[in-house]
Amino acid sequence: MISRIDLRGDALPEGPALRDLLPRADFDVQAALEKVRPICEDVHHRGDAALIDFAERFDGVRLESVRVPAQALADALAGLDADVRAALEESIRRARLVHRAQRRTAHTTQVVPGGAVTEKWVPVERVGLYAPGGRSVYPSSVIMNAVPAQEAGVESIALASPPQAEFGGLPHPTILAACALLGVDEVYAAGGATAVAMFAYGTESCPPANMVTGPGNIWVAAAKRYFTGRIGIDTEAGPTEIAILADDTADPAHVAADLISQAEHDPLAAAVLVTDSSDLADAVEKELEPQVAATKHVDDRIRPALAGRQSAIVLVDGVEEGLKVVDAYGAEHLEIQTADATAVADRVRNAGAIFIGPWAPVSLGDYAAGSNHVLPTGGCACHSSGLSVQSFLRGIHIVDYTKDALAEVAHHVVTLAEAEDLPAHGAAVKARFGWKVPESK
Predict the structure, then answer these.
(1) Which residue among 89, 99, 243, 372 is least crowded, i.e. fewest CB within 10 A of its CB?
(2) H or E segment and range at residue 425
(3) What angle in degrees, to the nearest 10, is found between the helix axes of 82-100 and 139-152?
(4) b/e 32-41 (16+ beta carbons within 10 angstroms → b)
(5) Whole-model pTM?
């Protein structure tokens, strides 16, 4: 059901050579880019009419309006199962606790007497959030996108999710209910690249946004790449990933269950176990079969994901080598199930989020840990972070110098300007002192 990669015996290669040995899904955003280009430009030129036509083409429903009526949000919340509502409210509460603590405050550095630089943090004015609606419904993604944007102080927040023929062209009612709980009342029935284009260009019903965030399929990722530079994006999210670094102290039933939990997202989902224990590897393989057979989405998602080239059990000589492997892999979700897991986790450099020990499964982070589940995929954790309040803030430096403070450093400014062959830069300083550079004190 799942392949093995044996890296025992020889010294592990470094850098790209090690990454090339590890499993990864095929996810060609560049190829998809050419297919989304005409879709995005059609939305640019025809606005809502294009969105309505694409909804009929891709989602099988003819919309009367792209904007979701306020009554539909209220009806969705009123009809929400009480237990689901309680779970969403607790997820929101915990996410707010974590993300509120990420708020930034202005800080002033007195560089010299009379010369100060202040860094202030200003939220993006308007953001478009995306909640997928394909194989599954993700109200949790509404929370993970909306809460950090709200805690950052973003004033204008809109959300798009694909129209569902089953619900009369509206997004899934649980998505709408989550929006209502969060106070997000600007919601659109638009999916995939069309939703990103709507936010990037704006249409008759939807003003353009400064930034688009949220997970999605390859078409969403390609549209984000297409609009990079015009709008801000969080990340080009690829298929979900779990990596588990485990030794012989790990419970194979837990490890197998956690691998399956991510495999059920998508046939391209990656499930990777890195271990120095052949006994654990064997036991996990034995656990997989009955656990897979007992769950849902077996043939269309879980089995293809576990059997795909993106999933494997990777055997290493020890936890030390395992750390090198998981750092090279840079997983979206990384579980550490080893002896002294906290100390091992502290040494990890590359991961979207780290889950320590047997009682912190990835599923907890997906819904109710308080952490964010919009995380870098495809190895991007080596240079990118998950979604946070910081994602929606811009740092602006404010420079405040007196005449004396400028005079004290003027000769350095002029010297560096001339060294870069930019004499007008120096002249801008000289002009303030009668074209004679003050002598250094």
Answers:
(1) 89
(2) helix 423-430
(3) 30
(4) bbeebeebbe
(5) 0.94
Q: What is the mean pLDDT of the chain?
A: 96
Question: Largest alpha-carbon pair distance within the chain?
Answer: 85
Burial of residue 117, with CB atoms counted within 10 A of its CB: 0-12 exposed, 13-18 middle, 19 or more buried:
middle
Taking alpha carbons only, the member of 168, 159, 175 closest to residue 77 is 175
| Token reading at 421 | 């062959």
Residue written as token pair 């694909």: 162
Share of the chain above pLDDT 70, in %: 99
Q: Is 382 exposed, middle or buried (0-12, 13-18, 19+ CB in 10 A)?
A: middle
pLDDT of 64 reads 94
Catalytic site positions: 332-333
Burial of 49 (0-12, 13-18, 19+ CB in 10 A): middle
Q: Residue 52: what are its φ and ψ, rounded to 5°?
A: -65, -40
b (16+ CB within 10 A) / e for 205-227: ebeebbbbbbbbbbbbbbbbbbb
For residue 397, list its beta bridge partners: 119
Q: Give the span between the Cα atoms of 366 and 270, in whole angstroms.
A: 16
Report residue 135's pLDDT band, with 50, 70 and 90 as the boundaries. low
Task: Work out whether the CA dihedral 160, 163, 167, 170 comes out positive or negative.
Answer: positive
Task: Tokens for 380, please give them.
Answer: 């991007």
Q: Which residue has the tokens 């204008």?
A: 156
Whether 333 has a pLDDT exceeding 80, the answer reads yes
Task: Identify whether the C-beta of residue 203 lies closer than 8 Å to the C-beta of residue 48.
Answer: yes
Q: What SS3 state is found at 160?
A: strand
What pLDDT does residue 440 have?
A: 66
Q: b/e for 80-111, b at 16 or more Cβ within 10 A?
A: beeeeeeebeebbebbbebbeeeeeeeeeeee
Per-residue pLDDT band at 438 (split at 50, 70, 90): confident
Contact criterion met (CB below 8 Å) for 176 and 187: yes
Residue whose C-alpha is closest to residue 265's, from 223, 237, 224: 237
Pairing of strands 312-315, 107-112: unpaired
For 260-280, write each residue's pLDDT tens digit: 999 999 999 999 999 999 999
Helices (H) and strands (E) in the chain, counts: 17, 14
Q: Which helix (H) or strand (E) holds 393?
A: strand 393-401
